Amino acid sequence: MFPGMFMRKPDKAAALKQLKAHVAMFGVWVAVVRVTPYILHYLSDDKEELKLEF
Asked: Where on the tree of life does the source sit, at the highest rank (predicted)?
């Protein structure tokens, strides 16, 4: 009926290898998203600081 229904499951070693690769890629993306604002702030010419007065 559906071709995906009868596909063999990958062995655990291959699944673990793929999981490690995906976790590593996710970690790299999180690091890039977290570091980007700091890099852009460092490269910007505007050196003013935001001061909040209460």
From this structure: Eukaryota
